[in-house]
Automatic annotation (TrEMBL), chain A:
It is found in: Mitochondrion inner membrane. Component of the ubiquinol-cytochrome c oxidoreductase (cytochrome b-c1 complex, complex III, CIII), a multisubunit enzyme composed of 3 respiratory subunits cytochrome b, cytochrome c1 and Rieske protein, 2 core protein subunits, and additional low-molecular weight protein subunits. GO terms for biological process: mitochondrial electron transport, ubiquinol to cytochrome c. The chain crosses the membrane at residues 20-42. Keywords: Electron transport, Membrane, Mitochondrion, Mitochondrion inner membrane, Respiratory chain, Transmembrane, Transmembrane helix, Transport. Gene3D superfamilies: Cytochrome b-c1 complex subunit 9. GO terms for cellular component: mitochondrial inner membrane; respiratory chain complex III. This is Complex III subunit 9. Its main location: mitochondrion. Component of the ubiquinol-cytochrome c oxidoreductase, a multisubunit transmembrane complex that is part of the mitochondrial electron transport chain which drives oxidative phosphorylation. The complex plays an important role in the uptake of multiple carbon sources present in different host niches. It comes from the Eukaryota.
UniProtKB/TrEMBL annotation, chain B:
It is a single-pass membrane protein. This is Cytochrome b-c1 complex subunit Rieske, mitochondrial. The keyword Hydrolase does not apply. It comes from Cristinia sonorae. Residues 208-276 form the Rieske domain. Keywords: 2Fe-2S, Disulfide bond, Electron transport, Iron, Iron-sulfur, Membrane, Metal-binding, Mitochondrion, Respiratory chain, Transmembrane, Transmembrane helix, Transport.
Length: 64, 279
C-alpha cells in the first residue's frame, strides 16, 4: 500500500507540470466517461420508450 | 581581585541617638556587631552572636574611619553560592503547554499514505472542477448557436433527377439564389482543362465541385451582389448584366470587375445521389 502511494506521488505529483497536465487529461477523460455513462443509463432506464427504439414499428425503409 | 575595584563613599550619617547641648545630635560610635533582638529574627531564633543577615566582609561593608562612615561594595565579588549551576533536581518538568493531551493514537500510521491521499483528493477536486468549468463554458456557448428548428429551415432539398443535362436550375436558399448546373461532359472537360493558376482567383474545378457533373454555387455576383445570367458571357458560363463580369463554366471570374469566383455553399448528396441538400 505504501509502495503504491509512493509510486503515485513520485510519478504524478512530484513535478507540478506533470500534476496539472494529468489533472487536465483526467478532466477530459472524466467528462467523456461521465457523458457516455449517463447516456447509457438514460437509454437503459427509458428502454422501449424512445423514438430510436420504436422507429422500426412505424417507418418502413423505402428500399425494402 | 575584588578589592582592586572597590569604591569608597563617605557617609555623613545623621546622628539620632543623643543630642548635644548645642542642639546637635551626637552618635560617636555605632556597634555594627550588634545582636539581633531575640525572638524576632526568622532564621536563627534566639541565636547569640553577630547578626546573620549582615553581608559578608569580603562583599564590602560599612566602616567607621576618621572622616566618618565609609561604605564599600566590591563589584567583582566572587559568587557566594556554589559556582556550578545545579542541574540535578527532582522538581516536575516545566512543559510548554502542560494541559495538552497525548495525540499519539490519532496520528497517521504512515506519512507516505497520508501524503498520497492528500494529493489524490486535491487532484480529484481539480479534475472535477476542470470538468465542470469546461462543460459550463461549452453549454453556455451552445445556447448561442442556432436551435434545431432554425437549422432545419435553413436547408433545402433538390431532386436532381428534375434537372436535365446541360440545364441550369435556380433555387432560393436562405434568401439567396443558388445556381445548380448539370454540366455536360464537354463542359466538364473545358472547366478542368483550363489553366486555373493564372486566373484572378485561382481555384481548380476539382475544389469547387464534389461531383464533376453537378456545379452548385451561390448566384450572387461577387462584385456588387447582382444575380448573373446563366449560359451567357464570353466564357460560356455566367454573365453579370450590372457591370459586365464574365464567369466561366466553373463559376470562376474571368473578365470584368468582380474580384472573386462565385461562392460555393456547403452541400451534400443524399439518398443514393438522388437528392442534393444545400446547407
Amino acid at each position: 500500500m505504501s509502495g503504491f502511494a509512493n509510486a503515485f506521488y513520485n510519478t504524478l505529483v512530484k513535478r507540478n507540470s506533470v500534476y496539472v497536465t494529468s489533472i487536465f487529461a483526467g478532466a477530459f477523460a472524466f467528462s467523456i466517461g461521465f457523458d457516455v455513462g449517463l447516456t447509457s443509463l438514460w437509454d437503459n432506464w427509458n428502454k422501449g420508450k424512445q423514438w430510436k427504439d420504436i422507429r422500426a414499428k412505424y417507418v418502413q425503409d423505402s428500399d425494402e | 581581585m575584588a578589592t582592586a575595584l572597590s569604591f569608597r563613599k563617605a557617609l555623613t550619617a545623621p546622628p539620632t541617638v543623643r543630642t548635644l547641648a548645642s542642639g546637635v545630635p551626637s552618635a560617636p560610635l555605632l556597634n555594627l556587631a550588634a545582636r539581633g533582638p531575640a525572638g524576632h529574627g526568622h532564621h536563627e531564633h534566639g541565636a547569640v552572636g553577630p547578626r546573620s543577615d549582615t553581608p559578608a566582609k569580603f562583599t564590602g561593608g560599612l566602616s567607621l574611619g576618621t572622616s566618618g562612615f565609609t561604605s564599600r561594595s566590591f563589584l567583582n565579588a566572587s559568587p557566594t553560592g556554589p559556582a556550578q549551576q545545579r542541574l540535578i533536581h527532582s522538581s516536575a518538568v516545566v512543559k510548554d503547554a502542560p494541559q495538552v493531551p497525548d495525540f499519539q493514537p490519532y496520528e497517521a500510521k504512515s506519512k507516505d499514505n497520508n501524503r498520497a491521499l492528500s494529493y489524490f483528493m486535491i487532484g480529484s477536486l481539480g479534475v472535477l472542477s476542470a470538468s465542470v468549468a469546461k462543460s459550463t463554458v461549452t453549454e453556455f456557448l451552445a445556447t448561442m448557436s442556432a436551435s434545431a428548428d432554425v437549422l432545419a429551415l435553413a436547408k433545402v432539398e433538390v431532386e436532381l433527377a428534375s434537372i436535365p443535362e446541360g440545364k441550369n436550375a435556380i433555387i432560393k436558399w436562405r434568401g439567396k439564389p443558388v445556381f445548380i448546373r448539370h454540366r455536360t461532359q464537354s463542359e466538364i472537360d473545358e472547366a478542368r482543362n483550363t489553366d486555373w493558376k493564372g486566373l484572378r482567383d485561382p481555384e481548380s474545378d476539382e475544389n469547387r465541385t464534389k461531383k464533376p457533373e453537378w456545379l452548385v454555387m451561390l448566384g450572387v455576383c461577387t462584385h456588387l451582389g447582382c444575380v448573373p445570367i446563366g449560359e451567357a458571357g464570353d466564357y460560356g458560363g455566367w454573365f453579370c448584366p450590372c457591370h459586365g463580369s464574365h464567369y466561366d463554366i466553373s463559376g470562376r471570374i474571368r473578365k470584368g470587375p468582380a474580384p472573386l469566383n462565385l461562392e460555393v455553399p456547403q452541400y451534400d448528396f443524399s439518398e443514393g445521389d438522388e437528392k442534393l441538400v444545400i446547407g
